[in-house]
Amino acid sequence: MKIKQKKRGLYSMDEFIKQLDPNLDYISHEIKYGKCYITVTSNRKEVTCPFCGWPSSRIHSTYNRTFQDLPVQGNKVFIIIRNRKFFCDNSDCNHTTFAERFDFISYKAKKTRRLEDEIVRLSINCSSITASKILKENVVDIGKSTVCNLLKKKKHR
């Protein structure tokens, strides 16, 4: 699948994913019922423990983490990242393992930062109920309470 126009043609899926983070590699995608599921993996050789700053390359395990991103060609987009857990070898750290983190999505978030920004932008001038209805149709699976929470969160930044 080719998406989004650039100056000399279309982006490949790998180029599209690298816009989120250059350390991600595209694996596959599937479109079902108006939803696009894109599977990616990290290509980092070493990551830093978020608790102590110690580098680690020793993988503990992997798990799938799913979150939503901006829609593409009328399809809601769900990204499935094969997230890795690493061992922290720093004996002074209180954590023995930690999950790989990415700048484009907050810790434990279900939506990318750019999607959260779009939700806030669309919701700022209408009620949370109206905003959630509009967003459900066109952009993202969301409820009115999530709209309210995102508006509060962005207000305090």
TrEMBL record:
User: What InterPro entries does its record include?
Assistant: Transposase_Znf
Identify the residues that the record assigns to the Transposase IS204/IS1001/IS1096/IS1165 zinc-finger domain, covering every copy. Answer: 46-90
The record's Pfam families line, in alphabetical order, gives: Zn_ribbon_ISL3
Highest taxon of source: Bacteria
| Name recorded for this polypeptide | Transposase IS204/IS1001/IS1096/IS1165 zinc-finger domain-containing protein
Source organism per UniProt: Acetivibrio saccincola
